[in-house]
Amino acid sequence: MTMSFDQRNGWIWVNGEMVEWKSATTHIINHGLHYGGSVFEGIRAYNSKPFKLTEHNQRLIDSGKTIGMEVPYSVETLNQACLDIMEKNNLTNCYFRPIAWRGSEEMGIGASSCSTNVAIAAWEWGQYFDGTGGITLHTSQWKKPAPDTSATSSKCAAGYVIGTMAKHESVSNGYHDALMLDYRGYVAESSGANLFMIKNGEIFTPIPDCFLNGITRQTIIGLARDNGLSVTEKHISVDELMSADEIFVTGTAAEVTAVGKIDDKDFTVGDVTKQLIELYKIETGQV
Ligand code: PMP
Questions:
Q1: How far apart are CA 121 and CA 13, in angstroms?
Q2: 129, 167, 194: which to mutate for ligand 1, most atoms within 8 A of CB?
Q3: Which class in CATH covers the domain with range 5-123?
């Protein structure tokens, strides 16, 4: 059994101070815990260089704005805190977890007088998926909600509950992760990564109008186009997805990961996917 995350050694940046890992706690009565009022980020550093650091910390601030919570630090302060925490913990290849959450000043649904707390932890984290030949996805019964029913463009913790339900459902059926459809029945993403399909050498990816427009997704679209590949953003039906030649998912944690199977249908890890995996490694400074 892996060590519980609260039992690690090291330092966590909490509201501007370096706090010893096991002492980085918060009171049980806080709005973030009770009402889901928290937003977070996931950032990777390769060879001591955080990838797209400013984009991620800006998204943390923007996610806060979406749910009406002001993050009380500038992007520059958050960027510097990430660099400081990496150095303080002697990390070179790591994953950062910035989180902002509402404090304890109010305990009803309203949160206008709640303070906002911010913490940044970092730890070594290898591959998110261990799927040789591609990961397996199971179509979930849980759908991504409409953008007028949830804060779908923000990394708000409350929005992740449905992802956890879909992930649990998939794992209990023997799959690595979930294929999540949206409220209209179009293909959306996996529980924590965006999705791409390749058909006759062309790349297609769903329009992120009710799920996160991932920073890795945007990076991959740019890299593909810079290398002469065609990328089209459009609504994708399940039938269309199932007729693809190759499928892969993208995310900070997942990086670029081939999909080898969806439900009963097998997919090949093809040349376009392999090329993009390599291009992403170069872009992030891994090779
Ligand atoms: N969708 C969801 C639900 C996610 O949690 C993530 C990871 N942040 C992504 C997509 C990919 O986003 P990014 O590439 O910015 O990490």
A1: 7
A2: 194
A3: alpha beta
pTM of the model: 0.97
229 pLDDT above the threshold of 80: yes
| Distance between Cα 216 and ligand 1 center (Å) | 8
CB of 192 within 6 A of ligand 1: the answer is yes
The helix (H) or strand (E) run that includes residue 19 is strand 17-20
DSSP 175-234: -SEEEEEBTTS-EEE-SSSEEEEEETTEEEE---SSS---HHHHHHHHHHHHTT--EEE-
Q: What is the largest CA-CA distance in the chain?
A: 57
pLDDT in tens, 23-57: 999 999 999 999 999 999 999 999 999 999 999 99
Q: Are 178 and 191 in contact (CB under 8 A)?
A: yes
**What is the model's pLDDT at position 1?**
62
Distances from the Cα of 25 to the Cαs of 29, 34, 88, 159, 204, in angstroms? 12, 16, 19, 23, 43
Phi and psi at residue 98, in whole multiples of 5°? -75, 140
The closest of 132, 256, 138 to 203, measured between CA atoms, is: 256
Alpha-carbon gap, residue 124 to 65, rounded angstroms? 30
Q: What is the CATH number of domain 135-283?
A: 3.20.10.10
Domain ranges of the chain: 5-123, 135-283
